[in-house]
Fold:
Amino acid sequence: MTIDVREATSADTILARCDILAAHSSLPDGLIERVYLSKEHAEVNALAAEWMAEAGMTTWQDAAGNQCGRLEGAVPGLPALLLGSHLDTVPSAGRYDGILGVLTAIAVVQRIRASGRPLPFALEVVAFADEEGTRFGRALLGSRALAGTWDDAWWELRGEDGVTLRDAFTAWGLDPARIGEAARRPEELVGYLEAHIEQGPYLEDENRALGIVSSIAGARRFLVTVIGKAGHSGTPYERRRDALAGAADAIIAIERIARSAQLIATVGHLEVFPDAVNVIPGKVEFSLDLRGEYDSERDRIWTVIQDMLSDICRQRRLRWESVETHSAPAAVCSARLRGVIAEGIRSTGDRRPMSLFSKAGHDAMAVAEIAEIGMLFVRCEGGVSHNPAEHVTEADVAATIDAFERAVLALADETDAAAADSAVSPDGV
Ligand SMILES: [Zn+2]
Structure:
């Protein structure tokens, strides 16, 4: 069988494959849901393996159920440039989040193999099995296994069906005792590149197909409690210590402060005590999720927010306290891989590529523990994702594949040039 590589790696084919994968769902009526260690997970791994093999890769499923493929470089056994994203989805998902990145990676390997150019590194594609955390409530299970940061406490996590992660692993044909075999060592990897839909409107607003990711924001989350005094609604204003009025002031101020610093702050949960129509609220709890491009700026803004809380509470004779419930560092994309992504985008005609940070989490965050990372964002219509309406255009997908291919080749060029330099250097450095 001869394969027309241009056809097999065209945007048209990639979009058709997105449709094929979308049909592997646990939900009826065309809705998509594909969770970790399910029948659908096995089905899409088999399809991805088939496409990887067609692209010239040797394939295997790792100890965490990630589907992997490898194309050797100029000589067998070289460290690998890892390309990937995920094949699992949230409930009622779109058909491109994660999936487009996996299919783009396979297409790029297929093109490079067909070109016959020997690369100074191997190429590996990884289709992560669990990024969204839909089934067990814990995200990035696939990429954490690959990064060697699996936590044995996760074995007892249970899905809605009551099945533990350990039992689901065994039922699917994996061996919990061998999870460590999925871990990759840093010296085996040259870096990690991921293409992903933007899941935001910034590229669309700027009328651009593609963007360079600067960092994946890490979130800090707090539970803030504002304490006043509950009292009858007949209490005069000057005697009230209304915790809800104070919290409302604070929430508006949080939005203003974060907005002016171009940070993302979200108050998504609020509870009022005692929560009665004729009682002045004596206590309010609200959540705060704070994200930024860089940790230092995010942490500085948290200090500003704390000062503001103290000011508002002083004026209203309230108190406040907070508990930090979650903290993750931002994963910063390396200058080298941002550079090759930029070169890839420039090759598609966008001379001054836009740089933006990811407000959502990605597999690259986990892989950043063991390799330098780079990400390419693709415009998605209206910034909509995690929704059946998620949409990308064929032209943007074509640009994605071209840019991603050019990025990989640009890294190969740099690596070849560095090797040539060190070969002519008299002291070998
Ligand atoms: Zn995703």
About this structure: The pocket of zinc ion is lined by residues 86, 97-98, 131, 196 (CB under 6 Å). The chain has a mean pLDDT of 96.
